[in-house]
Automatic annotation (TrEMBL):
Subunit structure: Associates with the 50S ribosomal subunit.
Residue ranges of coiled coil: none
Binding site for GTP 2: 193-200, 246-250, 311-314
GO biological processes: ribosome biogenesis
Key words of the record: GTP-binding, Nucleotide-binding, Repeat, Ribosome biogenesis
Name listed for the protein in its UniProt record: GTPase Der
Family statement drawn from the similarity comment of this UniProt entry: Belongs to the TRAFAC class TrmE-Era-EngA-EngB-Septin-like GTPase superfamily. EngA (Der) GTPase family.
Domain EngA-type G: 3-167, 187-368
PANTHER family: GTPASE DER
UniProt GO MF annotations: GTP binding
Originating organism: Novosphingobium barchaimii LL02
Residues binding GTP 1, per UniProt: 9-16, 56-60, 119-122
Pfam assignment, any one: MMR_HSR1
Cited function: GTPase that plays an essential role in the late steps of ribosome biogenesis.
């Protein structure tokens, strides 16, 4: 486990910019508008060889506990408990505020070591803020610029005494993983859907704690948040690792007009790319809508394994008819992958959550499956015998053999002649046969056609 460093400060002092600087990529959403970050975000950072986990937190605001800013502050307070070091960020150009002093007083009472960063300190405009920061009583402040990378060496020197003894041992070498080894790795499971479908509530229920910010307000989640978790399979008792990924709600593109929401939706799409299995969460009180099919199609186009889960099942009306209606609509609307797993769950009661995670592991196995070439071509020959390819215009299409080029998602290459004349319907026939006979049910399959290059090959 890497030592953990948490970033704390009031809104708009540059915490997320610092987070992005330390992990080396723009992972957290950044905007001039205060309060962009709402949930804790974790990232692996390395500073001059010093490795640690960095935690971005919501801006600290002095509001009532039941309000959205108050619930955000509670998340930040909870995150300090597991930290090895806290980075307290203040704004050099704005100077100290009463809220900075309140945060400083809270941090002084904590046993966690605190490093004071005075951000936006580049140029003469920030000199006064650096001098003023001494009054917080947290030691020598570090003049810093998260945007320009100024002060990184000073930050390294301040972190070194705390983090150097906690550095993990490096393996002598790393072997490249084969398909079987990947199945032993943590399952990357993303939860997507429209706003207010209950994605964050579902993850909190799975974890058994209020890890993610929830509430009646639509669009609370902005950043895609990854939470590492261990799941005990009730059928076998085996403990399996899961990386749960919460995402922002995805509305119709025409309804997304604010810059922050556009950024959040783009971040959710990146989370789909990162995931292995994607759970599309529906709201049982609203049924299946066109936007749900749009999201599902996007997941399949990206080659990810897909599960559909109907949330709020405990308050669903006409449950049997609702389930069958959604099943029929999915089979019609997602013709490219029929039979996508459909489960009924409840984030409030916990119904179906173990079945949901188990389905994620099962569909990942199909998504990662590789069929031996000999077995694949035996099936291929049988499929051609049962239904030979057509001969459009009297020109015979010759399909010679097939090979599996990749997994995750499974991809195949068919070799033959005159393949430009092969109709899409016959290609679908082959793909459907693979699903039925080779264990690729309900996962996206890629098939490419490649003509033989041998000039002496007979037609």
């Amino acid at each position: 486990m890497l030592p953990q460093v948490i970033i704390i400060g009031r809104p708009n002092v540059g915490k997320s910019t610092l987070f992005n600087r330390l992990i080396g990529k723009k992972l957290a959403l950044v905007d001039d508008q205060p309060g962009v970050t709402r949930d804790r975000r974790f990232g692996d950072a390395e500073l001059l060889g010093l490795k640690f986990q960095i935690v971005d937190t919501a801006g600290w605001e002095d509001e009532e506990a039941e309000t959205l800013p108050g619930r955000m502050r509670k998340q930040t307070e909870a995150s300090l408990e597991s930290a090895d070091v806290a980075l307290f960020v203040v704004d050099a150009r704005a100077g100290l505020t009463p809220l900075d002093e309140e945060i400083g007083q809270w941090l002084r009472a904590s046993p966690v070591p605190v490093i004071l960063l005075v951000n936006k300190a580049e140029g003469r405009a920030g000199e006064g803020g650096v001098l003023e920061a001494y009054s917080l009583g947290l030691g020598d402040p570090i003049p810093f610029s998260a945007e320009h990378g100024i002060g990184m060496s000073d930050l390294f020197e301040s972190l070194l005494p705390y983090l150097d003894p906690l550095q993990p041992e490096e393996p002598e070498f790393e072997e490249e993983m084969d398909d079987e080894s990947r199945l032993l790795q943590p399952l990357k499971l993303a939860i997507v859907g429209r706003p207010n479908a209950g994605k964050s509530t579902l993850i909190n229920r799975i974890l058994g704690e209020d890890r993610l910010l929830t509430g009646p307000e639509a669009g609370i989640t902005r950043d895609s948040i990854t939470v590492n978790w261990e799941w005990t399979d009730p059928a076998t008792g085996n403990v399996r690792e899961v990386h749960l990924i919460d995402t922002a709600g995805m509305r119709k593109r025409a309804n997304v007009v604010e810059k922050l929401e556009r950024m959040a939706v783009a971040d959710a799409k990146l989370a789909i790319d990162f995931a292995e299995v994607v759970v599309l969460l529906l709201d049982a009180t609203r049924g299946l809508e066109h936007q749900d099919l749009t999201i599902a199609s996007k997941v399949l186009e990206e080659g990810r394994a897909l599960i559909i889960a109907i949330n709020k099942w405990d308050v669903a009306e006409g449950a049997s008819g609702l389930f069958n209606g959604i099943r029929a609509a999915l089979d019609e609307g997602l013709a490219q992958v029929r039979g996508v797993p459909l489960l009924a769950v409840s984030a409030r009661t916990g119904k179906g959550l173990d079945e949901l995670v188990a389905a994620g592991f099962a569909i990942r196995e199909a998504w990662s499956k590789r069929v031996p070439t000999a077995a694949l071509n035996r099936w291929f020959d049988d499929a051609l015998s049962a239904n030979p390819p057509p001969a459009p215009g009297g020109k015979r299409i010759k399909l010679r053999y097939i090979t599996q080029a990749k997994t995750r998602p499974p991809g195949f290459v068919v070799f033959g002649t005159r393949l430009d004349l092969l109709p899409e319907s016959y290609k679908r026939y082959l793909i459907n046969g693979m699903r039925k006979n080779l264990g690729f049910e309900s996962v996206p399959i890629r098939m490419n056609l490649r003509s033989a290059k041998n000039p002496f090959a007979k037609d």
